[in-house]
Design goal:
This protein is 10% helix and 37% strand. The protein is built from two helices and five strands. It has helices at residues 23-26, 29-32; strands at 15-18, 41-51, 60-67, 72-76, 80-82. A hairpin with a 4-residue loop joins strand 3 and strand 4 (72-76).
Length: 84
């Protein structure tokens, strides 16, 4: 990890509770899938990525979470709460 990137608040292997803040607002979950997304998901962080946005100096931290329903999902820091 480069030293000029912000340090993630969570680590790979953390068990977390997650939810989408804006996903339903922008896209409408049921428009893409037959089953609606659960309001709250639980899983383990399996990867951490950094997504630069335009000219922003500080990229967004994206967590890849392997949820207990078997799906890999992507969340930002404000959408994750560490359970243990």
């Amino acid at each position: 990890m480069d030293s000029d990137l912000s340090a993630p608040k969570h680590a790979i292997g953390d068990f977390v509770r997650c939810w989408y803040d804006l996903y339903d607002y922008y896209y409408g979950w049921s428009d893409f899938f037959d089953d609606p997304a659960p309001a709250t998901m639980h899983g383990i962080i399996v990867d951490i990525e950094f997504a630069p946005w335009g000219d922003a100096d500080d990229p967004e931290i994206i967590y890849v979470v392997y949820c207990i329903d078997g799906a890999h999902r992507f969340f930002i820091e404000s959408e994750i709460y560490k359970l243990s």
